[in-house]
Automatic annotation (TrEMBL):
Enzyme class: hydrolase
A GO biological-process term: cytokinin biosynthetic process
NCBIfam families recorded: Rossman fold protein, TIGR00730 family (TIGR00730)
One Pfam family this sequence matches: Lysine_decarbox
Protein name: Cytokinin riboside 5'-monophosphate phosphoribohydrolase
GO molecular function, one term: AMP nucleosidase activity
InterPro entries linked: LOG, LOG_fam
Superkingdom of origin: Bacteria
Organism: Corallococcus terminator
Keyword ATP-binding: no
Length: 200
């Protein structure tokens, strides 16, 4: 597999820290790994929760962190004050588009509805052939196993091609996950619009 040209990684994760210390610890370790490898962080720009933890770790390691924050969040004082770059945009849609544009790969950590929204939009764009960037899940304490089971259920029900049953690289280890993403795309190229009964 050809090595991907990855210089920046977009991180999707919670604006809360969650109830387990392992979540924040994983975010910190991932941020440190990004800085150590010279990979720029692209993320939602907040200073709180796992988002703040990964950015703090990148900056502490001498790395670069690029935030993208909607204007309405300024009033909530959620923006990280020490980022290498902060881009303010007009909407959540513009936020996701700019993060995707600036990133060469994507990783999701534990999070809530916003994290899943960002993750599945990127997966959908890959399915539609709009990008070939690698995508990964940092599977802290098995957090994403129910999600992977749901994807398998969608495959079994005939709504997702079998060739796309595992669109992500998955690992509990930040370094192992980054190694896989640097190796190249994670979702095979196939047609989403297949006739009933047609094989991919």
């Amino acid at each position: 597999m050809a090595e991907a040209n990855v210089r920046s990684v977009c991180i999707f994760c919670g604006s809360r820290s969650g109830v387990r210390a392992e979540y924040r610890d994983a975010a910190t370790k991932l941020g440190a790994a990004l800085a150590r490898r010279g990979l720029t962080l692209v993320y939602g720009g907040a200073s709180v929760g796992l988002m703040g933890a990964v950015a703090d770790a990148v900056l502490a390691g001498g790395g670069k962190a690029v935030g993208v924050l909607p204007h309405f969040m300024d009033a909530k004082e959620l923006g990280h004050p020490r980022l290498t770059e902060m881009h303010r945009v007009d909407s959540m849609h513009a936020r996701k588009a700019l993060m995707a544009e600036r990133a060469d790969a994507f990783i999701a950590l534990p999070g809530g509805f916003g994290t899943l929204d960002e993750l599945f939009e990127i997966v959908t764009w890959a399915q539609l052939g709009l990008h070939r960037k690698p995508m990964g899940l940092l599977d802290v304490d098995g957090f994403f196993q129910p999600l992977l089971a749901l994807v398998q259920r969608m495959v079994e029900a005939g709504f997702v091609p079998e060739t796309q049953a595992m669109p992500f690289a998955v690992s509990p280890s930040p370094d192992a996950l980054l190694d896989r993403l640097l190796a190249g795309p994670t979702m095979p190229v196939t047609s989403k619009w297949l006739k009933d009964g047609q094989q991919t």
